[in-house]
Design goal:
Shape: rod-shaped
Order of helices and strands: HHHH
Strand content: under 5%
Number of helices: 4
Structural class: mainly alpha
Length: 147
């Protein structure tokens, strides 16, 4: 028995499929944005930790190390510069590490973009009349699926 579908039925199914696809893509985007927000939170925590360590290091090292260097024969000015320079270097490294986590490449929703590109390739293939799925789409039509 042959199935005969009318054009309105086909168009209705097409609208339903695209609506479902759109909703799925929105859910994927939301999940990925949530993941990226967590990444930003972790990067900000590293930045705050670096800043806190900078302040604590400045207070503690400037008090203890300057006195120790003075006892070793350094002048107070030279001892202060040595300790401040070391503290500054550690703080810069921590801040750089945290800020490097906020680059656009770390925050871009790559999976969503990849999925949208695959969906567009499938849609182009379907519209062009071939009905074949491009190999990059990652799946086969039901007629070729294994049981």
């Amino acid at each position: 028995m042959a199935l005969s579908r009318t054009v309105p039925d086909i168009l209705s199914d097409l609208v339903k499929e695209f609506t479902s696809l759109f909703r799925t893509e929105i859910r994927l985007a939301r999940a990925e944005v949530s993941e990226k927000i967590s990444l930003v939170g972790m990067a900000l925590a590293l930045i705050v930790a670096g800043a806190v360590l900078l302040m604590a290091a400045l207070v503690l090292l400037l008090q203890a190390a300057v006195v120790g260097l003075i006892e070793q024969g350094f002048t107070p000015a030279v001892a202060t510069l040595i300790v401040a320079g070391g503290t500054l270097l550690v703080g810069i490294v921590l801040l750089w590490f945290g800020l490097s986590r906020l680059t656009p490449s770390h925050l871009a929703p790559r999976r969503t973009v990849d999925q949208l590109q695959r969906d567009a390739a499938v849609a182009r293939s379907q519209v062009s009349g071939g009905g074949d799925y491009p190999p990059s789409a990652g799946f086969r039509p039901l007629s070729e699926a294994r049981p």
